[in-house]
Please model this.
Amino acid sequence: MSHRTLCLTLLMALPVIARATQHTYANPIDIDYRYNWEVMNDGVSFRTGADPTIVRYGDAYYLFQTLADGYWVSKDLLHWDFVSPDHWPFDGNVAPATLVADGKLFLMQSAFAPKPLMVSTEPAHGKWSFWTHQLPPVPGATRYDPAGNLEVRGPLPPGPWDPGLFRDDDGKVYLYWGSSDKYPLYGAQLDMRLDSSEGEGKRLAFVTQPLALLHLDPANHGWERFGPDHTMGDKPAYIEGSWMNKHGGRYYLQYGAPGTEYNVYGTGVYVATSPMGPFAYAPYNPVGYKPGGFATGAGHGSTFDDAYGNTWNTGTTWLGVNQTFERRIVMYPAGWHDDGEMWVDTRFGDFPHRMPDRALSDGETTFTGWMLLSYRKKATASSALPEHAASALTDENPRTFWVAKENRAGENVTLDLQGTPTVRAIQVNYADYRSDRYGDAPDIVTQFVLEGSADGKHWVTLADLSSSDRDRPNAYLELDHPARLRYIRYVHKHVGAKHLAISDIRVFGNADGPVPQAPRDVSATRGADTREATIAWKAVPGAVGYNLRWGLAADRLHSTYQRFADQPTSFTLRSLNRGVRYVVAVEAFDEHGVSELSQTVELPPR
Model:
């Protein structure tokens, strides 16, 4: 049997992708993000997801986000189903807080004045009621009436915006909140009347006065400076998105900074021995940080444990094409070292990762080792608008996209992988180009077929979503069986948007051959501004990209900045903390795999 015949025989034996066999995921997570309505009267249309809270209640996980008019439920953190609730705030939930207590799931929306507190014991069925119709006003907060007239001017801003709820082991409940370029994050103890049977008329109360817990300090914390790669330090930065975890007797108050609208949106953490502080800044900040790659940004999310005790951190990744707050949701492995150092692993954070079905051992990675096979590969489309060519489909930039001349069934795109690597997964990332949609509707579904070929002549179906009944703006599809393919073809069926627009078709797997060599001649020089350092290395032949990694020790390089090989091999890192010693290293990657880590270089605090 000839090699060509053998390849075709193997391909024809492949079944289509089956949802039940999925064991991996890729960021942005694959949910049916909803169309935003806030700027509909300006004709601005886009899907978005941000400020995610994931909480485990019963035997399921629940995902809440900003302005979705509902939420998602999952049994495995892979497959998410949207739930339409029977009770919901008319103005929509923004950056909601959750709390599981006494067998109940509580939900609080961001607010500038007293709002309801919702509760459910059947969230999978969308059944909610009011724990109270009106939370108590924040003591000392400025308040306005519904018409916008000033009622009370206080020393605190209106709130609680971006709330976070936390119940300690002694049963006491605390509320944390704040979102501002001027004010700090606040905290107070809240009596939620958890033992009350008064129905919806309960009067809750603040037990303590609000306390200012932490401020931004960009003069000492480089990553808290605003702008792309922290280059707009003259502009005010935001602190927001409170989230509290207790681990090993310590309290970890997490926050988002310096702003959601750039690649450097990250998560910081302060640590204390009591829920109201005093809090100490963690020298390893930002703890969650992903400024490079396809999905950039990792701030304002939640930290939770799965059913096996593995810890995860969620965050917000930025698109910002149609509007500043056009975003998606990401999820990363996280945890703590024995000495209390918190970590979030964003290395290869938008490549496929496996979803554990057991407790992970210390240091065990979820990264599959499936590499990006589609970067800068040739893409040929059936049609394209002049300024939105098919070449955008493989540039790893979600802010550029291909647009077909017509949104009709049969439009197609073919990627040439320039070889026959082993393909294991494909991610189709749609864009919104003049979509003209401003809310959910029955026709907002994603339908397409993926085909593969070893020779460009004989094709097999890899995935058939032509009967899909949900929207999948970031559709991630894991093959039932790996396949050696040169060509990947997307065949369009339907999207609910006015135009067919796709930012990237990302193909993952492995090519045959050795992994790249480790980068050499790595240097790291702290700048005159010690919040910055220049990192340089010698280019590795054939590399697709590099991961610049740093941390407090050689075995704790938890921060990663992914750079592609067509970018310079010298880079100014602007996210460092003054007075902190760092260790830096670089690794190379290509379609075969990942190199050994380079020799580590020390960055003294100076």
